[in-house]
Specification:
The chain is α/β, with parallel strands linked by helices. The chain contains 23 helices and 16 strands. The longest helix has 20 residues. The model has no long low-confidence stretch (mean pLDDT 91).
């Protein structure tokens, strides 16, 4: 269909954007289609509330700390629009051929009648988005008169055709999203009030009200209400549904999100395997950070942290394999400590954390995560045994107590790595006794057991530039005292 007449003959009838969203939401629900693809962990909390808001034809705001998929969710709303809708060809505000709102659209219908040319707008073209910044103006969002347009068309400034429409009217018959709403200056937020309630816009210098058909959605960090800015009360009152987002509450969900988002399958020369135990460590780092006294919890700990951490450790394993001419690599403890740069840039520290230093805090969190993951598979080595029963890791500790040390360079080849770990009495037997450990991941688990014993203060550890060395805790402490000469004592 290319003309208004053909559109009328087809029996087409206009539907408001919110009715359209509601209609398609119901259709997808009835057919059992996935509503919000790729969004995990919100199945029982955020998504039902979002469905209710769409069914109620509400404007919405998503409130949540950074890295909680707010923008991604809002961008998925476009999937609930019709595949295509007709507009008057050449219209800046997507005029509905059956109900034009702009002077241009009305003139076209008046001039051409049923021969008015129409175009079809794809659903992706009906989505608009603006990141709220302090320099955003009313002209950016709503519009203003354009003297250049007036001069070029030889029109007076009182003519409606000299209006330069802003982003929201240009998204008429679609969805418009404003991210980080509190960053918008209060006087600019006032300009949204008419759209939210009366569903029309007013342009400076023109005594007109142009009706709009648009579904509005916003995102904001709840702390921004007091930190960077405020959402003015009249605007908050006009936003129909306020939905609170949150971080993953379950480890499995967090792990699935990281696996989904991280660049893991690189199709390169090296295939990197990630044992489940190591995946747990990665996720526990975020869980520990969200409970840490060193971290500013009001700022939050983004899920992007574990995604970039995963990519860092994979790169570390990849680099080691390439250096040794290997085509396969399995994560090691050494690789885990290469995630520190991914942590330090994403953790907002409180005063105590600043005193400790970002790197030390990151290593502290990683150590706690290793302990937590270790306890999912093995017994607590610091727990007092009853009936003189030995700890399951005692044989390993005895090997170090006999004066033995374990040295693992960062770029150690797989063959040498396994040879070094095989030296430790009782270590392989301990890991193999756990049926949940995959055979391919025996040695990486052995490595993590040694590191965990250090984190539980059962083994000493010395971090050199490109190597880590483990030894008996007592011997390590005595060695740290140094050697004394007779001259050191005043006899």
């Amino acid at each position: 269909m290319k003309t208004l007449g053909e559109l009328k003959k087809s029996g087409y009838s206009s539907l408001s954007v919110k009715d359209e969203l509601r209609k398609n939401m119901i259709r997808k629900m009835k057919s059992g289609e996935e509503l919000f693809s790729g969004i995990l962990g919100y199945e029982k909390t955020v998504l039902p509330q979002l469905q209710n808001a769409i069914l109620a034809r509400h404007d919405i705001i998503l409130l949540g700390l950074r890295g909680q998929a707010k923008t991604r969710i809002l961008r998925l709303l476009v999937n609930f629009l019709d595949e295509k809708v007709p507009i008057i060809e050449g219209s800046e505000v997507n005029d509905d051929p059956l109900n034009p709102i702009s002077k241009y659209g009305k003139k076209m219908v008046e001039k051409h009648g049923d021969d008015t040319p129409i175009a079809w707008l794809e659903r992706e073209q009906r989505y608009g988005e603006k990141l709220a910044t302090p320099d955003t103006t009313v002209a950016d969002l709503i519009g203003d008169l354009d003297p250049i347009k007036a001069a070029s068309k030889k029109l007076t400034l009182a003519d409606e055709e000299v209006i330069n429409f802003g982003l929201i009217p240009r998204t008429n018959r679609g969805i418009f999203v404003i991210n980080e709403l509190p960053d918008l200056q209060p006087r600019i937020q006032v300009a949204l009030l008419n759209i939210m309630q009366e569903r029309d816009i007013q342009i400076r210098g023109f005594n007109i009200r142009i009706p709009l058909d648009v579904s509005l959605a916003f995102s904001a960090n709840p702390e921004d209400y007091t930190n960077r800015g405020n959402i003015i009360t009249p605007l908050k009152d006009r936003i129909d549904s306020q939905i609170i987002t949150h971080y993953p509450r379950e480890l499995d969900v967090a792990s699935k999100i990281t696996s989904q988002e991280a660049w893991s399958e690189r199709n390169g020369e090296v295939k990197v395997e990630i044992p489940d135990l190591y995946r747990k460590v990665l996720e526990y780092v975020a869980f520990e950070a969200r409970e840490s006294e060193y971290i500013d919890q009001k700022s939050g700990v983004s899920t992007r942290m574990t995604i970039t951490a995963m990519e860092q450790v994979i790169s570390a394993a990849e680099r080691r394999a390439i250096s040794n001419g290997e085509t396969k690599a399995i994560l090691r403890v050494t690789d885990l400590f290469y995630m520190v740069p991914a942590l330090t840039g994403k953790l907002e520290l409180v005063y105590e954390g600043e005193q400790e230093g970002a790197v030390n805090v990151a290593k502290h969190l990683l150590g706690k995560a290793i302990r937590r993951a270790f306890l999912d598979y093995f017994e607590d080595p610091s727990k007092k045994q009853v009936d003189e029963k030995k700890s399951e890791s005692q044989k390993v500790l005895d090997w170090f107590a006999d004066g033995e040390t374990l040295d693992i360079p960062d770029l150690m080849s797989e063959k040498e790595y396994r040879k070094a770990l095989d030296q430790v009495d009782g270590l392989k037997e301990l890991v193999e006794s756990k049926s949940t450990i995959s055979g391919n991941h025996i040695y990486s688990t052995m490595d993590l057991v040694i590191e965990a014993l250090h984190q539980f203060s059962k083994l000493g550890k010395e971090d050199l530039e490109s190597e880590r060395s483990y030894s008996d805790m007592l011997g390590s402490m005595l060695g740290g005292m140094g050697e004394f000469d007779d001259d050191d004592f005043d006899l």
